[in-house]
């Protein structure tokens, strides 16, 4: 909010309360309310990202009157990867945090009337969404905004630290209205993220609480008010570091990522002159998730004195839907597919 009027010092708790009320109201409306809200949020975000991609291409090739051809200039000066490979490793935690959320596809499948039909389509589309909305847009940001831009988070100047690289990219072209629109879209995205997080976490925590594996107090979302704390950025780093290991599970490069993360934790960037406490804090910010997961796992084992469940004893039938008519359903689906035109069959293969 400070992007529009940095001179007004309204308490952050005011905006947190407004956003929290909106998110709680949406989730109180049930699955239908969540779905309708996310549908509207998605329309805004998709239109904004597609518009940014088109505008970014125009800006990059010199289509605006205030900027010439940019191309890959910033990938050479000052460079594409700050601090080389180790600099890339330092953002693994943030990248994993940003990538998290795709598991909501599986969680939402329990709320659909026909998950067998709708879930494969949704899962296939995740790849294309990540490719278009993440990779393409971030590539354009890298082409339009150098890492030495002082308005970026973590730069030497914090006057415009709240500005997004998307906003900076548009602003650098000399436009006056579009940066404000993009900043508004970012606020909508923040509400959408909070809405999805409450939707997902409330169901997950409710299921864990029923099984005695989570305390009801863990569902309280008032940690957002820590934004009023002067060192809220550091608090966010700690919370972010505590919840990203699950995002790496299943990835082929999991071991490589963890090894690289341990490397930058033991030997972080620019440690010369840092106090010993700062170095220690940086280590745990990079590797906090591992001890947190181990403590919770061992604590549950010791407290409830549970034994390891063998594969043959795992319960995979409780809560499972009855698929006694599975053969008939498959035959009906195959008959429907045979009636599709060729373009639709090809589309269904990739989407």
From TrEMBL:
Topology with respect to the bilayer: Multi-pass membrane protein
Q: Does the keyword Ion transport apply?
A: no
Molecular functions (GO terms)? amino acid transmembrane transporter activity
Q: Where in the cell is it found?
A: Membrane
* Record's keyword terms, sorted: Amino-acid transport, Membrane, Transmembrane, Transmembrane helix, Transport
Coarse class of the primary localization is membrane
Q: Which InterPro entries match?
A: AA-permease/SLC12A_dom, APC_YAT
Show the GO cellular component annotation of the record: membrane
- In this chain the Amino acid permease/ SLC12A domain maps to 1-215
The membrane spanning regions, by residue number, are: 12-30, 42-63, 83-105, 126-147, 167-193, 238-263, 283-304
Q: Name one Pfam family in it.
A: AA_permease
Name listed for the protein in its UniProt record: Amino acid permease-domain-containing protein
């Amino acid at each position: 909010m400070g992007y529009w009027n940095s001179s007004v010092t309204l308490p952050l708790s005011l905006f947190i309360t407004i956003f929290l009320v909106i998110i709680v109201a949406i989730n109180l409306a049930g699955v239908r309310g969540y779905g309708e809200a996310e549908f509207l949020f998605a329309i805004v975000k998709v239109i904004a990202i597609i518009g940014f991609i088109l505008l970014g291409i125009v800006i990059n090739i010199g289509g605006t009157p205030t900027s010439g051809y940019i191309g890959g200039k910033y990938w050479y000066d000052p460079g594409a990867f700050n601090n080389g490979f180790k600099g890339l490793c330092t953002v693994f935690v943030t990248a994993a945090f940003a990538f998290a959320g795709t598991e909501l596809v599986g969680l939402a499948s329990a709320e659909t009337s026909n998950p067998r039909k709708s879930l494969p389509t949704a899962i296939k589309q995740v790849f294309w969404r990540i490719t278009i909305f993440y990779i393409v847009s971030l590539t354009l940001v890298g082409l339009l905004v150098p890492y030495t831009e002082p308005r970026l988070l973590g730069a030497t100047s914090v006057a415009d630290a709240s500005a997004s690289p998307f906003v900076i990219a548009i602003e650098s072209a000399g436009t006056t209205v579009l940066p404000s629109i993009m900043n508004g879209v970012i606020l909508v995205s923040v509400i959408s993220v909070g809405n999805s997080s409450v939707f997902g976490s409330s169901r997950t925590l409710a299921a864990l609480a029923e099984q005695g594996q989570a305390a009801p107090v863990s569902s309280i979302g008032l940690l957002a008010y820590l934004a009023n704390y002067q060192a809220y950025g550091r608090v966010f780093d700690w919370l972010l570091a505590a919840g990203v290991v699950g995002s790496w599970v299943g990835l082929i490069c999991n071991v490589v990522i963890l090894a690289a993360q341990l490397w930058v934790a033991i030997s972080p960037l620019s440690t010369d002159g840092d106090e010993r406490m700062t170095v220690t804090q940086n280590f745990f910010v990079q590797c906090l998730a591992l001890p947190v997961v181990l403590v919770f796992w061992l604590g549950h084992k010791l407290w409830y004195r549970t034994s390891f469940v063998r594969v043959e004893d795992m319960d995979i039938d409780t809560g499972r839907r009855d698929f006694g008519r599975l053969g008939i359903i498959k035959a009906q689906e195959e008959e429907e597919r045979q009636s599709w035109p060729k373009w639709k069959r090809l589309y269904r293969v990739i989407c």
